[in-house]
Amino acid sequence: MSDQKGNLLGRRNFLKRSGLAMAGAPLLSMSGRDVRDASPTEDKESDFTFVFMTDIHIKPEMNAPLGFQMAIDKVNTLAPDFVITGGDLVYDVMRGNFEKSDGLFKLYTEMSKGFEMPVYNCIGNHDLFGIYEESPEDETHPDYKYGMWQRYFGDTYYAFDHKGWHFITLNSLDVTDNKRYKGFFHSEQLEWLRDHLEGVDKDTPIVITTHIPLLCTFSQLYGKEGSRTANNGAEVFEIFQHHNLKLVLQGHIHWMEYGNANNRVQFLTGGSIAGNGWKGRRHNTREGFMKIMVKGDSFEYEYVDHGWEAERLRLAAIKK
Ligand SMILES: [Fe+2]
C-alpha cells in the first residue's frame, strides 16, 4: 500500500458485508438536477479509489496556497477517480465583505483547477457569506449565506453515482436567529433526500458527505466545549434506515477519526488541510487527507500526509 506513513490507525478497515456482492447490483440511472454522473461509460464492477479532503481554509496568507498546492500535487500522484471536499473551502466569508470573500472563492476555484480529476465540493460554516453580525453584508445580498457558494459550485446538496456506489453531498448548515452558524439539515433538503432515495436501490452502497459531523467522539472526549455534531443528525439516519448507508464522510473538527456503528454505518472524520489556521496541528492532528479504496462492497482507507507539516517547519526554521 502506498503512503504507509499516512495510515494513522495502522490497521486495515476492511468490512466485508456478506450476501450483497456488487456483481449484478444495478447501477442507478437517475435523472434530474441533483445527479451528476461521474462515470457514465466505465466498468461498474471494478474497484476504485477516491480522496476525501476537508477544511482547506484557503486564504492568501500563511503560505496557505503553497500548502493547498502540495495537497493537490499529492492527490494527482495518487490519481484517484475523483475528489470529494468536506467544506470550509475558504477562510472565511462569514464575517467578510463582498470583495474579499469573492476573492477567496476565486482563489479556491482557480487552485482547484489543478486537480486532474473531478472535484465534488461540500459547503462548510466558513463558506457561509455574510451571516455574522460583524459582516458589512446581510440577508439582502444575493450571495448571502449559501449564495456565494452556489454561484461558484451549484447546489449545496446533490448526488452522483460511481461504479455501483452512490454518493450524496449534504448541506449541514443553517443560521441561528442571533446570527451564528449551526449544524442543521433544513427540512427542504430532508424532503429532497427522502424523494431521492426512493430511486436508489436498497442494496446500493451509499456514501454521504457532511461538513458538520453526524457522529463524532470529540464531545465525549473533550466535554461540552466540543459539542460539534449536527442538531438533527438522527433525522438523516432515519431517512436512510432502509438503505445501505455504508460510510459518512465528515469535516469541521480538524481531526482524524474512524468509527463503526454496530457494523451498520462507518464514519470517517477527515483531518484537515489547514490544521490550526495554517499555524500547525489542531487537536494534534497532522494536516492531511483521506484516500479511500473501494473494493467491491467494502472499503479501506488511509490518512495521507502531503508533506505540509515538514514544509511548514522548514519555512519556520528559515524565518528564525
Ligand atoms: Fe474548518
Rg result: 19 Å
CATH classification, class level? Alpha Beta
Uncertain segments are 1-38
Structural class: alpha/beta
How large a portion of the residues is in β-strands, by DSSP E? 15-25%
Determine the mean pLDDT.
Answer: 87
Q: Using the 3D structure, state the CATH architecture.
A: 4-Layer Sandwich
* Element pattern in H and E: EHEHEHEEEEHEHHEEEEEH
Major sheet details = 6 strands, mixed
Question: Can you offer a commentary on this structure?
Answer:
The protein has one domain: Metallo-dependent phosphatases (Purple Acid Phosphatase, chain A, domain 2). It is 22% helix and 21% strand. It is built from 7 helices and 13 strands. Strands 4-5-8-9-11-10 form a 6-stranded mixed sheet, with no helix packed on it. The two termini are 38 Å apart. 44% of the residues are buried. The chain binds fe (ii) ion (FE2). The site of fe (ii) ion (FE2) has 7 residues, from loops.
Please tag this protein with its features.
single chain; 320 residues; alpha/beta; Purple Acid Phosphatase, chain A, domain 2; six-stranded mixed sheet; five-stranded mixed sheet; 7 helices; 13 strands; 22% helix; 21% strand; globular; disordered N terminus; binds fe (ii) ion
